[in-house]
């Protein structure tokens, strides 16, 4: 049993705990953890408890959403305007709090000219206007080169 100030009152019978409630002052008996043995209950306003619970659920949902990984796929031979459009997309993802994997596809002989490909992906990273930090430097793998960036 926990009182309205947060102090532990120890283990008590249900009837004794109900006697401590003050309905006229808005202090109710709320079961916090029903799976514990014995169950944990608290004296507080039910409206306040419900408000805090909704607030915590929203915070948890936002934290879960913000940790996503988004992909932006570019080509090494794409025109500047096409790259600017993809950079705006990456900006939007970064400002939402997501990590962004920039994936540059390389075809045929492009795979062997690694310095040129690294220069192209660096140029694209410079086009991203949102404040970001590099999680990983450009690496070769799969069908091309990739790098990870996220919000600063």
Present the secondary structure layout:
Blueprint (H helix, E strand, L loop, with lengths): L13 H6 L8 E6 L6 E5 L1 H21 L2 E7 L4 H16 L3 E7 L8 H14 L4 E10 L2 E8 L1
Parallel strand pairs: 3-4
Antiparallel strand pairs: 1-2, 4-6, 5-6
N to C succession of SSEs: HEEHEHEHEE
Oligomer: single chain
**Percentage of residues in helical conformation:** 25-40%
Q: Which class best fits the helix and strand makeup?
A: alpha+beta
Number of domains: 2
Q: How does the major sheet shape up?
A: 4 strands, mixed
What would the average pLDDT be, to the nearest integer?
A: 91
Q: Terminal Cα separation, in Å? A: 44 Å
Using the coordinates above, name the CATH class of the largest domain: Alpha Beta
Low-confidence parts lasting 5 or more residues at pLDDT below 50? none
* CATH homologous superfamily grouping of the largest domain: Translation initiation factor 3 (IF-3), C-terminal domain
The helix tally amounts to: 4
The coarse silhouette is rod-shaped
The total beta strand count reads 6
Radius of gyration of CA atoms, rounded to a whole number: 27 Å
Strand order of the largest sheet: 3-4-6-5
CATH topology of the largest domain: Translation Initiation Factor IF3
Beta-strand percentage range = 25-35%
User: Architecture of the largest domain, according to CATH?
Assistant: 2-Layer Sandwich
